[in-house]
Amino acid sequence: MISLLAVFGNPMVVLAAALTVTLHHLVLWAVLPSSVFNYDAAIWVVFVHAAFVVLSTSGAVFIGRSFFDNVVRLDEQVQARTAALAERNARVRHLLDNVPQAILMVDGTGKLGAEWSARAAEWLGAPTAGQPLWALLAAKAPDEAAYLELGWESLTDGFLPRALSLAQLPQRVELDGQTLAIRYIPLDDNEDGPIGAMLVIFEDVTARVAQERAESTQRELMALVQRILQDKHGFVEFAHEAEELIAQVIAAEELSPLLARRLHTLKGNAAIYGLDSVAETCHALEQEIADEGTLPSVEARGALQTRWATLRSATDTLIGEQESEQIVVGAAEHRAVVRALLTGAERAVIAEVVAKWSLEPGRRRLARLAAQAERLALRLGKDVVVDIDDHGVRCDGEALRGVWSAAIHAVRNALDHGVEPAAERLAHGKPATARLTVRLDEDIDQVSFSISDDGRGVDWERVAAKAASRGLPHATPADLRDALFADGLSTAEAVTDVSGRGVGMSAIRAEVEALGGLIEVDSTRGQGTTLRLRFPKARVAALSMAA
Question: Could you tell me if 145 and 152 are in contact, meaning their C-beta atoms sit under 8 angstroms apart?
Answer without folding.
Answer: no
